[in-house]
Structures are given as C-alpha cells and as structure tokens.
Amino acid sequence: TLEKRERIMSDRTKEEWGALAASIEGWDWLPGMRDVAGFRLLRAGNPEDQPNCVPDVDDMATAGCMLELLGYPQLTLVGKVDGVPHYRVRVLDTNNAFVYATGQAWGLGRACVAAAAALGRWCGGDV
Predict the structure, then answer these.
(1) For the chain, how far is it from start to end, CA to CA, in angstroms?
(2) pTM of the predicted model as reported, rounded to 2 decimal places
(3) Which H or E element spans position 15?
C-alpha cells in the first residue's frame, strides 16, 4: 500500500535519499545544488568529476532543482508534522489530465525523489 511504501522510504537517511536520487535515470547536477558534504555546485557538474557526491535532498535550492528535473510537476503542501512540511509531488501529462507518478514525503526534495523513483526517471517534463 502507499502508506507502507511511504513508511519504508521515510526510514532512509538523507544520504540514502541522495544516493537514490542520483541513481535514477536522467539525474543531472544543476547549478546551485548542494551535496551532503555541504559543497554547493556553482555550475552543472558531471558525476564522473565527483564520484562520491550525492545530493542533499533537504537543501531547498537542491529541491528546487529537482522540481526542474521533474519538469515542474504539480506540488501540494499536505501539512506539517512537528513543524516539518509534508509534500505531495505529482507528475502529470501536458494536459494535466493523467497522473504518471506521485511522490509524497516530508521535505520537498524527498517528495521529488519519491516521484522520480515511482516514475523510474527524472523526466524534465517529457512524460
């Protein structure tokens, strides 16, 4: 069920979420993203240049870049738990009539990763 899947994904660490994000087809480092070590990329990077780099999914600039990697999907703030926002990200077709994938998690970056994982790729709006 969705609840069980969300619970399993919520047990991951920030580093595991970042590694998942970078492992999904279509991943690309964009300018302004930050890795888990705190290094902010000032220009688009190549994964081969920094093989141990994984994105910091809890960094808001990185999360914004992930929205771009998904093609600016529909975003909903579901609510807050203990002050932490919980988001739902839905990847829709160009007519906004069909939902291809949904990701839901606390934190915008994690919700983006969940949506990309459900879709099987970072689509850049090309679904």
Answers:
(1) 24
(2) 0.80
(3) helix 14-23
pLDDT in tens, 58-117: 999 999 999 999 987 788 888 887 787 888 888 887 776 678 888 888 899 999 999 999
Q: Is 62 helix (H, G, I), strand (E, B) or coil?
A: helix
Distances (CA, A) of 106 to 58, 77, 88, 97: 9, 10, 9, 26
Round to whole Å and give the CA distance between 17 and 14.
Answer: 5
Name the residue among 97, 114, 98 with its Cα closest to residue 106.
114
Distance of CA 86 to the CA centre of its chain: 13
Nearest to 11 by CA among 102, 76, 105: 105
Non-local (6+) Cβ contacts of 45 within 8 A are 29, 33, 53
From the CB of residue 7, how many other CB atoms can be counted at a distance below 10 Å? Answer: 10
CB atoms within 10 A of CB 15: 15
